[in-house]
Design brief:
- The structure holds two protein chains of two kinds.
- Helices cover about 70% and strands about 0% of the residues of chain A.
- Chain A is an all-alpha fold.
- Chain A has one domain.
- Chain A has a two-stranded antiparallel sheet with strand order 1-2.
- In chain A, helix 2 packs across helix 3, helix 10 (about 210-225) packs antiparallel against helix 12 (about 250-275) and helix 12 (about 250-275) packs across helix 14 (about 300-320).
- Chain A is globular and about 65 Å long.
- The model of chain A has no long low-confidence stretch (mean pLDDT about 85).
- Chain B is α+β, with helices and mostly antiparallel strands.
- Chain B has 15 helices and eight strands.
- Chain B has a three-stranded antiparallel β-sheet with strand order 1-2-3. A three-stranded antiparallel β-sheet of chain B has the order 6-7-8.
- In chain B, helix 3 packs antiparallel against helix 4, helix 4 packs antiparallel against helix 14 and helix 5 (about 130-150) packs antiparallel against helix 6 (about 175-195).
- The two termini of chain B are about 25 Å apart.
- The mean pLDDT of chain B is about 85.
- Classes of the chains: A mainly alpha, B alpha+beta.
- At the A-B interface, helix 7, helix 11 and helix 15 of A face helix 4, helix 5, helix 7 and helix 14 of B.
Chain lengths: ~350, ~375
Amino acid sequence: MFSLEKLVSIIQAWLQSTLRDPWAYVVVCVMVGVAAIALFAILGLMLVYMERKVAAHMQIRLGPNRVGPMGLFQTTADTLKLVMKEGLTPDGADKFLFNLAPFMVMIAAMLILAPIAFAKNFQIWDISIGVLYVAAVSSVAVIGILMAGWSSNNKYSLLGAMRSAAQIVSYELSAGLSILAIVILSGSLKISDIINSQADGWWIIKGHIPVIIAFIVFIIAVTAETNRAPFDLAEAESELTAGFHTEYSGMKFALFFLAEYINIFIGCAIGATIFLGGWMPFHIGNWEAFNHVMDFIPSSLWFIGKTVFLIFLIMWFRWTFPRLRVDQLLNLEWKYLLPISMVNLLVVTLMAIMGWHL
Amino acid sequence: MLEELGTNDQGDMIINVGPQHPSTHGVLHLVITLHGETVKKVEPHLGYIHRSIEKMSESLSYRQFSYVTSRMDYLSSHINNHACALAVEKGLQLEIPGRAQYIRVILDELTRIASHQLWWGALAMDLGAFTPFFYSFREREMINEVMEETCGARLTMNYIVPGGVMFDLHPDFQKKVKIFLAEFKSKIHEYNELVTGNIIFQNRTKGVGYISKENAISYGMTGPSGRGSGFKCDVRKLHPYELYDQLKFEEITEEGGDAFARYMVRIREMEQSMNIIEQLIDNIPEGDFQAKTKAVLKLPKGDFYSRVETARGELGVYIVSEGGTTPYRIKYRSPGFSNLSALNDLAVGGKLGDLMATMGTLDLVIPDIDR
């Protein structure tokens, strides 16, 4: 059976037998870095392709189908075009911040990859405060967006950046609170502990209604945090042309574009990890045969499958709903989602104390 | 005039929307004063697509001048041509054969449906939903195919000419229109499910861009935009032309006066237009499709005015004739221009996003405003 875990241990054993200790770690760090960047590029390309295909099928179109088999290389061609384009810096822009902003957004997205468990025992860094780390680092991206909006010297960009800041800061709260619900139930902030606590059933199933509410709130918050429709106010095309990245072109624009898709992936990966059991296969009570068949599916496939399902959900939102207005967006968070998730958190705490979830 | 510096003395942000902007649907230039996200003033600047159609018409013959009107409100080009033909016929005191009248009314109503379909998709796109745009184009394509078979064009029709219509109908016309009607009856339900019933859409449009009936009248708002404020201004009812006095249809008005009311007027109007076509499509009389006219038309001295209901409101054509083969002066009263004049009243106090909903429901076609 294919397993990423075995691959990792083989590489590790080989490195430790051939190199001395500090050098082995250096090589491991380089390999992880290269793998993360490669994953970034591949994820970006695949998700953009997926988005275009999903959109096409919802809009009675075919989507890209000319470049490569089924249009698979369309996004590669687009990226090549973007790389070759001139990266313009507008007159009167704050050049340093303008050039730094896309990297800030990108680095923030990249850092969150660390604690995500892609498969059984396949994780870059199983930090003990995993969930807290994710929540903290994901809010760094807003600095990059603000930077981009401010330094562009463009009023559309500024409006977009202000919207984005207000939006991300407020939706962080309900995303955090809904993650907390699971932290309370599983009793740990560590990603691997949260996954292991779901060995006998995913939280969405054994957590009853409060966890389902938390899950819905989380999905809404993730959609908002990644600036996706119906919450894409920061780049509202019909209002602000392209929002905070109006003035960006070429590769700098591509970095923003890529970061958006990476953020979707990360948001959905976190959702899949804490609510849908991460790489944990689907088990039903004591159906031995069924559980055994489920175990046979590689853990990486389970993880990717769940994440892609959530990504599809978010894409579905985008191609169905109109956009909210800026005051409605904040009303939704502060008047509805936040109170709901707070009450929900209390219910979950009660549930955990009484042991109803077991 | 243009405060290009970006802010005024009260610290408000002055932003130029357009002439190139995704939701002005053409080359409209709005100078918006924003206080935070709240709109304080909207000042439209026109003239980016002025082709001096009225002046040009003075050197075109009475057969030719209606051709340029297809380029005014390009989404209701049949109806524009119709208005011109009516004015010329008034001058010549021509009797139009029954068959031509039927064809004209059916095509007018098909045009109205097609225009409202496009508006529906574009409005949803202004509000951030892309998918409806493709859905509306799917059904609009069926109408366009009918048009293509009938007059050889899909946008600038030039089919309705003084005296009747240019050629006879395509043999498949009735069949294809009936297929469209049957298909669109169920699709309009889909439109309502996808957009009308959507809670986000309703929140975005209800109470947005309000204008009272009195103000709508004083701005001269006509068409669905005026009727959304309860102003009964349907030319087809008030001054019936062609067959409209013999037809059974409702004049749609809504009392809301907001973007949602204007939206509902258009949605319900599509149903009424289908109703009109259904009454006519089986009864198209046999006979001539064009009255006998001289090769060169000469209008007697005097002025002639005709008014029709386009998809956007009342279009007036005013011809002053000196008795020659070309008009002495032509003036168009275009619905878009009057509707746009109300924009400042509608948008002030709302958010920037509301402005897009307001402009979308006014259904502006910029070449119609500039001419």
